[in-house]
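Lab notebook, design round three. We kept the backbone fixed and only want residue identities now. Task for the bench partner: fill in a sequence for the structure below.
Input structure tokens:
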């Protein structure tokens, strides 16, 4: 019965013929964008809020432009799956940004060097996400019950995210303590170098420690985000490309949002709700396929509501704080 339902389900998701040159073109496009970003920040300058906002808008524009390419090449249904995956990954990545902020503050990494850490962290994340997506897609294709396992895991994670919002940075600090026990780390920076020499021995700088923790925390986040995207698309090209374009803009988004964690009080609640929704969708998908654009609408509505209610709470808190001063 499950096998028959899975066969029917496979016909509900988009199945596209992706030639090898399309994968190569995607890889070249990502490499070019990374190269441009690296050249722009080669002087290790401290990005201002305006610069970060402009760069973040450009990265979003690149992601949406690729959505247009998908629509032109493979049709509107493929466009819907790509856009759903992009929105899920982009929204879930916000928690990642806040964890990075806690980590880099703990290690006292100067603002002018943070871009270098995040650049190589995101480069590694792209490779790791590719592996996760390949393994996840293969498991779903071979073992249908994995859909239920992933779905239940996402629902559990969603409730955990909602209930434990204040524990966002604890995993990063635990990982950092573990790295410090395993790897000798210099107490001082050596410019933007990842390795330095102390008493003739080559040891890690705080930048390398930060990079290792960024990579490990991204693996932890990928355990949530990759199954979440697989809930809206089973096509590896769409899953990877939506994941990649969402991740590419995280450095700019970091410099926009790093200090604004308290402003988005209900965002974690919204992200938890998104995980619960896609988990339920994935669990039920063996028997019932929810239309891609309905899923996209629900995800967008949850995210918008979380932002609106967070802004209202922030404005109310600011007004209450201003009242004693006005008296």
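Proposed sequence:
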């Amino acid at each position: 019965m499950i096998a028959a339902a899975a066969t029917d389900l496979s016909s509900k998701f988009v199945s596209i013929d992706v030639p090898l040159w399309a994968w190569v073109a995607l890889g070249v496009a990502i490499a070019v964008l990374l190269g441009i970003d690296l050249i722009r920040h080669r002087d290790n300058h401290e990005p201002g809020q305006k610069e970060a906002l402009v760069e973040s808008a450009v990265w979003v524009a690149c992601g949406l432009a690729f959505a247009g390419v998908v629509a032109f090449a493979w049709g509107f249904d493929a466009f819907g799956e790509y856009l759903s995956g992009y929105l899920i990954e982009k929204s879930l990545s916000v928690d990642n940004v806040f964890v990075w902020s806690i980590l880099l503050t703990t290690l006292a990494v100067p603002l002018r060097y943070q871009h270098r850490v995040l650049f190589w962290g995101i480069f590694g994340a792209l490779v790791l996400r590719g592996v996760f997506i390949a393994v996840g897609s293969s498991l779903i294709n071979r073992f249908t019950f994995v859909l239920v396992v992933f779905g239940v895991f996402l629902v559990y994670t969603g409730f955990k995210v909602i209930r434990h919002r204040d524990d966002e940075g604890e995993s990063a600090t635990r990982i950092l303590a573990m790295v410090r026990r395993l790897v000798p780390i210099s107490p001082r920076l050596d410019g933007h170098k990842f390795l330095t020499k102390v008493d003739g021995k080559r040891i890690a700088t705080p930048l390398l420690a930060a990079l290792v923790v960024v990579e490990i925390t991204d693996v932890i986040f990928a355990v949530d985000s990759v199954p979440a995207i697989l809930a809206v698309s089973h096509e590896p090209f769409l899953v990877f490309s939506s994941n990649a374009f969402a991740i590419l803009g995280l450095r700019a988004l970091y410099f926009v949002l790093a200090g604004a964690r308290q402003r988005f009080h209900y965002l974690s609640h919204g992200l938890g709700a998104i995980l619960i929704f896609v988990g339920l969708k994935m669990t039920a998908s063996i028997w019932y396929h929810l239309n891609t654009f309905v899923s996209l609408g629900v995800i967008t509505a949850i995210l918008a509501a979380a932002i609106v209610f967070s802004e209202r709470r922030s404005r109310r808190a600011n007004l209450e704080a201003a009242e004693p001063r006005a008296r």
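Keep this in mind before ordering anything: Residues 2-318 form one domain.
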